[in-house]
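Dear colleagues,

I hope this message finds you well. In preparation for our joint manuscript, I am sending the MPN domain-containing protein (Butyribacter intestini) sequence together with its predicted structure, so that both groups work from identical material. I would be grateful if you could confirm receipt.
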Amino acid sequence: MLFLTKNDYDKILKHCEAGLPDEACGLIGGTKDGNDKYIKKVYLLTNIDHSNEHFSMDPKEQFQAVKDMRQNGLELLGNFHSHPESPSRPSEEDKKLAYDSKVNYLILSLMDRENPVLKAFIIDEEKNVTIEEIKITE
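The corresponding structure tokens are as follows:
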């Protein structure tokens, strides 16, 4: 299970809404305890593609985020991006670009602006997709 604070959820939501009409993206760092993963820090990154159909994270910002994680004893738990006009599920491109089967891929659908949908996925080497439960905590 993946644990996310309401504060960090709001941070991701605001970043994704601010990025509209383009996809927004970022990284998540945290800790692991058995099968449980705790998001401790959300890194809001720039989508240098400026597209509503795909994203590329700014490499300098990515490097800074990973450096910050190491300095704070966190590990990379995964990344997130928004789908401005489609459901919260990995596209074929998302699957193709999923290189690490040990991390989570979070997708926030903003298709229905009043009811955003955040889901977490694990994508294995064969590109099979599994949903990981997210628990939003205070």
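For the figure legend, we might mention the following. The beta strands are 2-5, 25-33, 36-45, 75-83, 104-109, 117-123, 129-132, 134-137. The chain has one domain: 2-137.

With kind regards,
E.M.
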